[in-house]
Design goal:
This protein has ten helices and nine strands. It has one domain: Rossmann fold, CATH 3.40.50. The longest helix is centred in the C-terminal third of the chain and has 20 residues, at 234-253. By secondary structure, it is α/β, with parallel strands linked by helices. It is globular and about 50 Å long. It binds 2-acetamido-2-deoxy-beta-D-glucopyranose (2 copies). One 2-acetamido-2-deoxy-beta-D-glucopyranose binds at residues 88, 90. Residues 1-15 form the signal peptide.
Amino acid sequence: MYILSFGLLLGLAAAAPQRGGRTGNGRQKATAQQQAAQVPQGVSTATDGSTIIDDTVNINNLPIRFRVSAPADQFLATTGIPGAAATSPNGTMGVNVLLHGDGGQSFFDFPNQAVQANTMGVALLAPDPNLFWGGGAGLERTDGVAHAQAVSTFVTDALPQMLAFNSSAVSFTGVSGGSLLMSGFFIPAQMQNFPNSAVLLNCGGLAPQVDFVDAATVMQQTTIHFQSTQSELQSLQQSIPQAVTAYEQAAAQQGLSADQINALQTVDNTPNGGHCEFDGQDFVSGVQVMANSFSNVVQPGGDGIVTGIGAPSNGQVKTGVVGNENLQFVGGKKRDALPVEKRWVVVNDDP
Ligand SMILES: *[C@@H]1O[C@H](CO)[C@@H](O)[C@H](O)[C@H]1NC(C)=O
Ligand SMILES: *[C@@H]1O[C@H](CO)[C@@H](O)[C@H](O)[C@H]1NC(C)=O
């Protein structure tokens, strides 16, 4: 059991920012993780009026900072959060758990904070000095196993101590490096813990790097959408189609027909734009456009329409993977590292 101490929560909101370390005459540059610690935790209000709590819990010796956005009455009364009213962790609303890209931008933007189709938003911050999900760099995510385990344990053990939610309606969103962890590690090793789940993999994909724990259950029940752009990073122009092919084959090995696979696994990279620029313009606004249409794209009954997606897409992104594994790209930046998106540091640690 992970005992959360919410007595601290309200105090943390006002806690003084920590300062980055220094050595000798020279300044020691704070890591991204240390800089993130300067952004205060606490309670705030979401774009749709939901209540956001931002706090950190220790999971398997990894510090997992989280943001949970929910109607206030869905928090357990025991948290002491204003308006919290739930008396049991068994709720009726689902959750959409987001893993940010390298540098943590989408954790702080929290593009899934508004309730959508009865689904509440959660975002987790990578327990890594660089804020890379899976650690390592580029396509080599050397801490992928441990990070995937921590995400799973957070949702199954820590989240029910603060929020009432439907544990049979847990879905996920990856952004860039977060999509690498989801597809490379989390789906094969942890998704059996989340029945009938769905994953929106934005601007990143990696074939499974570890064995499936329960391939039959996971491949028969999990909805996966791969979303990219025409001018994706060149390294991902290789790894996303490899991931699409690997997941399609994993489903076929479990006896799913082409039609069954296409109903569960879809792919699109029609918008013009670079890495994560799904609206044809920018990383942040592009990720927001996909988050706004999460339910349409991966939840049951979704029509596949993404409002605001970049031209020349007609808005419909649900194209079955079978026969469409070989995505066509145009140009794209050639670099081994994924771009670090870190526009969120608002605290100036200069004296
Ligand atoms: C919550 O649901 C689980 C599984 O359905 C059940 O075992 C448990 O008793 C429920 N707990 C409460 C407090 O209702
Ligand atoms: C939980 O979600 C599942 C899957 O969507 C649904 O079948 C079930 O009715 C939900 N349970 C509650 C209590 O809302």
